[in-house]
Amino acid sequence: MNRGPGLLKRWLQNIGKMKDEVKERFAQLWSRKEVREEDWEELEELLIQSDVGPRLAMELVEEFRQFREKSPERGDWQYWLYNKLYSFLEGNNPWLFSSAEPNTLRVILLSGINGVGKTTTAGKLAYLLQEGGERVVLIGADTFRAAAMEQLRIWAERARCRYFQGSPGADPGAVVFDGIHSALHHGDTVAIIDTAGRSHVNKNLLAELEKVTKIARKAVPESQFESLVVIDSLAGQNAFAQVEAIARVAYLTGIVLTKWDSQAKGGIIFRVAREFGLPIKYLGVGEKITDLLPFDAEEFVKAIVY
Ligand SMILES: Nc1nc2c(ncn2[C@@H]2O[C@H](COP(=O)(O)OP(=O)(O)OP(=O)(O)O)[C@@H](O)[C@H]2O)c(=O)[nH]1
Ligand SMILES: [Mg+2]
Q1: In the Cβ-directed half-sphere of 290, how many Cα atoms lie within 13 Å?
Q2: CA angle at residue 280 from 279 to 286, to 5 degrees?
Q3: What percentage of the chain carries pLDDT values higher than 90?
Q4: Which residues contact 235 (CB under 8 A, 6 or more apart)?
Q5: How far is ligand 1, taken at its centre, from the CA of residue 118, in Å?
Q6: Distance of CA 62 from the midpoint of ligand 2 (Å)
Q7: What is the CB < 6 Å shell around ligand 1?
Q8: Whose CA is nearest to atom 24 of ligand 1?
């Protein structure tokens, strides 16, 4: 994978607040003789503002306090913070299909709430995998809107991959079934399924996602299936509840965090990893076809702490 200087710059995007304010505050509290209760509260507030979520913020502050009290000779707090933050992402395997057979069909299902960037991610991922030598087909399971089908067709054109389209209004489960069989027939190595956006209040759409997932899972061995939920980096509490509902039906194996280039704050990475207990696979960093980065936990935490 290409990891040039441009890539590092995009990693660093949106961790400014964590890097400057939060890290600075840790350093100050570490070196001060007396720390007042308000100072700890202020650190917690800063962490919450960087989007790590209230639970994680509390945990970090508590443990840092303990570490500080237990280390009178003033150990290496940066090393402590690195290990602590990294532990939240421990085991974050960013690769797809770690144990799959090469050259046989693998299936990626993309799901998520409305407008988070599923179709765009499908296109970027198709491009990335094609560049890596795969034969990719994009399968359009969002058959409700003609515009959605056209949007995916255009992405397939840009990514120079095959596109499998169901007929408008067709049952998404049937389209996925036919699409995967067409992929097997054509000797494609990766099938990427784009689904319709859905919310937790819509029981029919969730039931449909469950059905589509079952069909896709059954078509290939377990090691050849990835079910990725797409989450907007600006996601608030409400979005988390909706992703939970999706997680209950979609046998999720990983997360793609999109719109990292927008006003997102770095802490969201730790929060989604913690809340869903799933590896973050990619970051979407823009609207162009090349704007998808594999997520590297170690590099990311290093960039915050050092
Ligand atoms: N800045 C930025 N914009 C993005 C990114 N990913 C997607 N978008 C934009 O987000 C908008 C929605 O993207 P789509 O891919 O259509 O989202 P979707 O989840 O397929 O939407 P529905 O199918 O309607 O649920 C588009 O304007 C995309 O260009 C990203 O990483 N960064
Ligand atoms: Mg879409």
Answers
A1: 7
A2: 170
A3: 69
A4: 116, 243, 268, 272
A5: 6
A6: 42
A7: 112, 114-120, 142, 148, 197, 258-259, 261-262, 284-287, 291
A8: 115
What are the tens digits of pLDDT across the range 214-237?
999 999 999 999 999 999 999 888
pTM above 0.90, yes or no: yes
pLDDT tens column, 180-223: 999 999 999 999 999 999 776 788 889 999 999 999 999 999 99
Tokens of 133: 């030598």
How many angstroms separate the alpha carbon of residue 113 from the centre of ligand 2?
A: 10
- Find the helix packing angle between 268-276 and 237-249, rounded to 10°: 40
- Number of Cβ within 10 Å of residue 21's Cβ equals 15
